[in-house]
Amino acid sequence: MPTTSAALRPLEPLLLVDRFAPLHAELIALLRGLGPSDWERPTACVLWSVRDISAHLLDDDLRRLSFHRDGQPPPAAGAIDGYASLVAMINRMNAEWVAVARRMSPRVLVDLLEVTGPMVVELFRSIDPHAPAHWAVAWAGEEASAHWFDVGRDYTERWLHQQQIRDAVGAPPLTGREWLHPVLDLFVRALPVAYRAAVREDGTTVGLAIEGPAGGEWTLRREAGAWRLLAGRHPAPDATVTMFDDTAWRLFSKGLGRDAARARVRIDGDQALGEVALGALAVMA
User: Fold this and answer.
1) What integer pLDDT is reported at residue 96 of this predicted model?
2) pTM of the full predicted structure?
3) In 3-state terms, what secondary structure has residue 207?
4) Best CATH choice for the domain 17-173 from the list 1.10.760.10, 1.10.3720.10, 1.20.120.450, 3.40.50.2300
């Protein structure tokens, strides 16, 4: 069906470099307040404790500074010939670092994070947000991205891992709109990839309504044989997927299985078309 809704609009760049320092301050305060037993608590990341996630965040900083700022090439890990081999390389590097970092005390981890976090922000600030990114946002299906999108992807990862720590230790969540809405605004950009195999006639639309303080509305529209994501609500979508903001971030980050998601998501209209959204992932997996 053709779209005539003036409410639909192209997605805009999301400039998040100013959110890193406040997010980092929250992380350091959280980690400084943990007790000895908190560091060993399990998290939503399978096989990773609070200590392991904290070490992974440090590794993110060190890799960003070494590979991006300083031009250090990653260690040879075989040919990267597609998404699967890229994920395998990342998983291998993650596992190697976490294993070594278990030798570090929590105090050492936090002391190092206090140093590296501002260095990463300085790097991000030094680059034109519209310049080519050092790393493309592969989960969004991009082979080349703008710097702002790479920075935004980095923000979503740091917010997600901090939230996983908060969940594990029972700390207050960072789910106010100023924290979570940017995450969701970026996570939903994984939807066109999730719908690649869903072939429909041009003009077919899928609405996504995320309810709650951090929520928003988006529309997928089939155009020229591909799916395009737009901001806003279509007046008569072929399918509408509705969920709360807490469900949305967990779903897009592999924190909810498909069965659990079905119980927390409402689909109106074309059920098969709407259910494709339950497989969207905005993380490398």
Assistant:
1) 93
2) 0.93
3) strand
4) 1.20.120.450
